[in-house]
């Protein structure tokens, strides 16, 4: 029987299968953060249970942490972080706290430590766990009850996902990044299009991408409604992993690579659904509305809700334009922003910072615009500083910050004020996501940097000759 | 978890699609370390709008939410389920639920019952024309009754069984502790392990 990659990884982790019951799936790696874990640890205490495999469990502090130097000043945020510290100490879980060189956004540190490996099952109480699928892992977000379940049993009862192939073939035009690919995918299949599926990104355009770009794509699988998205591991994957702290060493490396090379969809295996995208037709993409499926190429204009044939889409578009303060027909390039946010688990890795720095170097952030640059982890920050990227951003007038989730979600001090408009490299443009009343346009790092310079949504090509 | 067999309560028409979990409860309300007390954050941004459905006194005691498609998309926060339950909701009806939200609901005892969109539209009309109408949701027979309408709904069979019996997932899994142990002996040696904190 020919199998897809997702089916292979699934089968390798089935502890128990019985008719009429979900499969019991073994979990190789469980990542924790402060927001979705406290009630799970409480549950363990109430039932007198322990953490079954602390050696397969890693925690970090990311959602609540301020990105300016100094302690957490919000007492409620501080309680949540301190609760994680107490829980990790009590249950023997390894925690990377603020100030630790390994602290950072949970989905940045797993790959960076080499903990994220091909063929693994990886869960976290966070929907962007799909990021780790870039390595050919089956990785998905879970709720707090499931966090407790994994802590207690290292397994999860799950019904198999359906499989969807997303084929992206052809040559990507200049200025088109991984973020543009995934925004185009979401616009095509919709925010519910992936529900019940695991997406496998395939094709020559995907194969040509670096690991960091692949992570950006898998990260936003959840924005298409899919719990997981993955990419078959290849030489790019192995090269990225080799030598990392938790990657196998010596003869174990050779054994692992031999096993990892089997992790590809068999020729002739059938997917439950197939979507084809011609890479050559893609362009820098931005969102105009309040869900990630409401996106268009930057060269387009704000759509007229009347143009949507479906009544639900029409009313959603009307509501979105009202919230976003936009008029139909306005060119997307004419939309002025107040804030530019570069960071998050979607685009807070070193290549993202390099891409934006390459655009902004020798230029200035436009008057009246603030730009926040937030590395995804302490290690990304140190790497960027060793390359002088912090100075590039600072000289352009941007703020260089410490690692954390920052303005991706309105939970820490970095927030939009009501009515404030951002171009953001994060993953969600929901109403109020970046702060109550804030208006978000999702963009790539290159578009973020060009937008900071011009003050209106722009691509790097719009800056030609202006340096 | 409490058993769920049948529930009757005031139906609340929420005529919106793509209600993501950031709308159900914004991130700023997620800082508690308890499982209760999240009702103040439920639909926080929308409750400031006096035309929002829950600001109509007829619906404030509602317990059956009738929502548009793609309910519960976005963040995996189970706080969204807790906020709905703390407010008093026991059932959400929609033609399409996001996967993680539906899973979280089943774990916490909130029933997510899937109806056809045309049935949701009929319910919206009924609840808007006769505010305060009660809706009965019978999990055993998978039936929704409101006024003269009776609709069948879909729910995952395993989740239905667990809700009817009020069973806790972890206890069910721990019945298979030996199988988990056996599986662990077969895991390749090169799989990563971290040094625990003690």
Automatic annotation (TrEMBL), chain A:
Pfam families the record matches: Aconitase
Domain Aconitase/3-isopropylmalate dehydratase large subunit alpha/beta/alpha, first and last residues per copy: 7-455
Keywords, in A-Z order: 4Fe-4S, Amino-acid biosynthesis, Branched-chain amino acid biosynthesis, Iron, Iron-sulfur, Leucine biosynthesis, Lyase, Metal-binding
EC assignment: 4.2.1.33
Co-factor binding comment: Binds 1 [4Fe-4S] cluster per subunit.
Enzyme class: lyase
Pathway stated in the Swiss-Prot or TrEMBL entry: Amino-acid biosynthesis; L-leucine biosynthesis; L-leucine from 3-methyl-2-oxobutanoate: step 2/4
Ligand binding ([4Fe-4S] cluster): 345, 405, 408
Reactions accelerated catalytically: (2R,3S)-3-isopropylmalate = (2S)-2-isopropylmalate
Named cofactor requirement(s): [4Fe-4S] cluster
Repeat as UniProt keyword: no
GO molecular-function terms, A-Z: 3-isopropylmalate dehydratase activity; 4 iron, 4 sulfur cluster binding; metal ion binding
Segments for region (Disordered): 415-443
GO biological process: one example: L-leucine biosynthetic process
Chloroplast among keywords: no
Protein purpose: Catalyzes the isomerization between 2-isopropylmalate and 3-isopropylmalate, via the formation of 2-isopropylmaleate.
The family this protein is said to belong to: Belongs to the aconitase/IPM isomerase family. LeuC type 1 subfamily.
Assembly information from the UniProt record: Heterodimer of LeuC and LeuD.
Protein name as catalogued: 3-isopropylmalate dehydratase large subunit
Taxonomic source organism: Leekyejoonella antrihumi
Gene (UniProt): leuC
Automatic annotation (TrEMBL), chain B:
Catalytic activity: (2R,3S)-3-isopropylmalate = (2S)-2-isopropylmalate
Molecular function GO terms recorded: 3-isopropylmalate dehydratase activity
GO cellular component term, pick one: 3-isopropylmalate dehydratase complex
Keywords, comma-separated and alphabetical: Amino-acid biosynthesis, Branched-chain amino acid biosynthesis, Leucine biosynthesis, Lyase
Pfam families per UniProt: Aconitase_C
E.C. numbers: 4.2.1.33
Presence of the UniProt keyword Amino-acid biosynthesis in the record: yes
Entries under InterPro entries matching the protein: 3-IsopropMal_deHydase_ssu, Aconitase/3IPM_dehydase_swvl, AconitaseA/IPMdHydase_ssu_swvl, IPMI_Swivel, LeuD
Organism domain of life: Bacteria
GO biological process: L-leucine biosynthetic process
Pathway: Amino-acid biosynthesis; L-leucine biosynthesis; L-leucine from 3-methyl-2-oxobutanoate: step 2/4
Domain Aconitase A/isopropylmalate dehydratase small subunit swivel, residue spans: 1-117
Family under the similarity heading: Belongs to the LeuD family. LeuD type 1 subfamily.
Record's subunit section: Heterodimer of LeuC and LeuD.
Function: Catalyzes the isomerization between 2-isopropylmalate and 3-isopropylmalate, via the formation of 2-isopropylmaleate.
Protein name (record): 3-isopropylmalate dehydratase small subunit
Organism (species): Leekyejoonella antrihumi
Upper taxonomic lineage: Bacteria, Bacillati, Actinomycetota, Actinomycetes, Micrococcales
């Amino acid at each position: 029987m020919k199998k897809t990659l997702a089916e292979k990884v699934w089968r390798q982790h089935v502890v128990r299968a019985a008719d009429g019951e979900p499969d019991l799936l073994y979990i190789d790696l469980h990542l924790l953060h402060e927001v979705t874990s406290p009630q799970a640890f409480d549950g363990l205490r109430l039932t007198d249970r322990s953490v079954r495999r602390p050696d397969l469990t890693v925690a970090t502090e990311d959602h609540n942490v301020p990105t300016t130097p100094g302690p957490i000043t919000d007492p409620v945020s501080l309680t949540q972080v301190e609760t994680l510290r107490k829980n990790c100490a009590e249950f023997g879980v390894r925690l990377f706290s603020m100030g630790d060189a390994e602290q950072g956004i949970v989905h940045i540190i797993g790959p960076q430590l080499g903990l994220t490996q091909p063929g693994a099952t990886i869960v976290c109480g966070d929907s962007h766990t799909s990021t780790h699928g870039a390595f050919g892992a089956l990785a998905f977000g879970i709720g707090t009850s499931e966090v407790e379940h994994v802590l207690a049993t290292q397994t999860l009862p799950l019904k198999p996902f359906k499989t969807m192939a997303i084929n992206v073939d052809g040559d990507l035009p200049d200025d088109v990044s991984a973020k543009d690919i995934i925004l185009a995918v979401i616009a095509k299949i919709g925010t519910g299009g992936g529900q019940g599926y695991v997406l496998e990104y395939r094709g020559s355009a995907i194969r040509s991408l670096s690991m960091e770009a692949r992570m950006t794509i898998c990260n936003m699988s959840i924005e298409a409604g899919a719990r997981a998205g993955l990419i078959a591991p290849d030489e790019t994957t192995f090269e990225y992993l080799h030598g990392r702290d938790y990657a196998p060493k010596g003869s174990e490396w050779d054994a692992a690579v031999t096993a990892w090379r089997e992790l590809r969809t068999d020729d002739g295996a059938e997917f439950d659904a197939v979507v084809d995208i011609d890479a050559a037709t893609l362009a820098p993409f931005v969102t105009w509305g309040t869900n990630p499926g409401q996106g268009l190429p930057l060269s387009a204009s704000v759509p007229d809700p009347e143009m949507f044939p479906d009544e639900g889409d029409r009313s959603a578009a009307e509501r979105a334009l009202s919230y976003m303060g936009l008029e139909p027909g306005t060119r997307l390039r004419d939309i002025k922003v107040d804030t530019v946010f570069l960071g998050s688990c979607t685009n807070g890795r070193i290549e993202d910072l390099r891409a934006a720095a390459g655009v902004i170097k020798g230029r200035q952030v436009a008057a009246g615009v603030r730009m926040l640059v937030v590395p995804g982890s302490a290690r990304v920050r140190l790497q960027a500083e060793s390359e002088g990227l912090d100075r590039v951003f600072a000289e352009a007038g941007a703020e260089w910050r410490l690692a954390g989730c920052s303005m991706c979600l309105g939970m820490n001090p970095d927030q939009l004020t009501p009515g404030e408009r951002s171009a953001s490299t994060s993953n969600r443009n929901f109403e109020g996501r970046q702060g109550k009343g804030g208006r978000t346009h999702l963009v790539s790092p290159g578009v973020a940097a060009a937008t900071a310079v011009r003050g209106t949504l722009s691509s790097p090509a719009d800056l030609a000759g202006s340096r | 978890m409490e058993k769920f067999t049948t529930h009757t309560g005031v139906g609340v028409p929420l005529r919106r699609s793509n209600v993501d979990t950031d709308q159900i409860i914004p991130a700023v309300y997620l800082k508690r370390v308890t499982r209760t007390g999240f009702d103040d954050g439920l639909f926080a941004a929308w409750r400031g709008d006096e035309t929002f459905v829950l600001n109509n006194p007829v619906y404030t005691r509602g317990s059956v939410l009738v929502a548009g498609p793609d309910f519960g998309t976005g963040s995996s926060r189970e706080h969204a389920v807790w906020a709905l339950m703390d407010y008093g909701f026991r059932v959400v009806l929609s033609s399409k639920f996001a996967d993680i939200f539906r899973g979280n609901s089943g774990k916490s005892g909130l029933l997510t019952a899937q109806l056809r969109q045309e049935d949701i539209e009929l319910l919206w009309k009924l609840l808007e024309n006769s505010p305060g109408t009660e809706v009965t949701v019978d999990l055993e027979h998978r039936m929704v009754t409101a006024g003269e309408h009776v609709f069948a709904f879909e729910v995952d069979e395993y989740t239905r069984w667990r809700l009817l019996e009020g069973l806790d997932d972890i206890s069910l899994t721990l019945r298979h502790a030996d199988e988990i142990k056996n599986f662990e002996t077969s895991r390749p040696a090169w799989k990563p392990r971290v040094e625990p904190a003690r």
